[in-house]
Amino acid sequence: MEIFAQIQHYGGPTRLLDGTYNPLIALWFAVAEKFDAHGSPLPDVDGRLFAFDASRSQLKLDYTWGGYELPWKDGEIEEWSTKLPSLWRPPEYNQRISAQNSAFLLGGVPKVMKGANARYRKAPGDGLTAGTWKIDLIRLATSVTLSMNTIDRKPQGRSTPTFTMRVSAGGKPSIRKVLERHFGYISASLYPDLYGLSKYGTTSL
Hints:
The protein has a domain at 2-108 and 166-200. The chain has helices spanning 2-9, 23-31, 95-99, 135-141, 172-183, 187-190, 194-200; strands at residues 16-20, 47-52, 86-88, 102-106, 162-167. The strands form two sheets. The chain has a three-stranded antiparallel sheet with strand order 1-4-3. It is an alpha+beta fold.
């Protein structure tokens, strides 16, 4: 896990999903300007924020998760692909983790057993027939098992729901200005290490 945390923050592929305890930093990543291979800005497109219940199962660097073996290999972790992802707040291995107030979600690729996909009910009024999503559509939308909830439906007491909201492309420029001017969130401040400095060091307020 310690190695994966470093790999993840430098762009390598892992089973970790980047998150943050700071909603404004999450918003910054949702609206951040994108560039093509030549450094020219790309047109803004709609973004999306996800909010997870931080009380869900939290990992610790114990014998299982702090060792050199992959705990999820060969099906060793019970319900690895059916339970909701666990949350891990890593130590500050590098400057990016502290600057981004990082957290990671970790879970298996969704697998739905017959009769057990109630958490993937289709939303009323979405123009689709009633029922639940099939596993191939679920995997197109998420790489971990989720339990989506709407803000107008009160979650059950022991549930750990996930919420999402869309950030329109047209709203991104003004949101970027607020985050930069009032909170100082720019590429250089959220990637403060030497690698980030070499890539984003020309960005200024």
